[in-house]
Amino acid sequence: MSAYSSIEWTEATWNPVTGCSKVSKGCKNCYAERFALRLQAAGHPHYVNGFKLTTHHDALRVPLMWRKPRLVFVCSMSDLFHEEVPLSFIRQVFDVMRMAKHHTFQVLTKRSSRLAELAGELPWPDNVWAGVTIESGEYLSRANDLRTVPAKVKFLSLEPLLGPIPHLPLQGIQWVIVGGESGPSARPMSAGWVRDIRDQCSNANVAFFFKQWGGLRKRDAGRVLDGRTWDEMPHGTARLQSTPAPRTWTAPATYRTSPSACSRTPAT
Ligand code: SF4
Question: What's the CA-to-centroid distance between 78 and ligand 1, angstroms?
Answer without folding.
Answer: 6
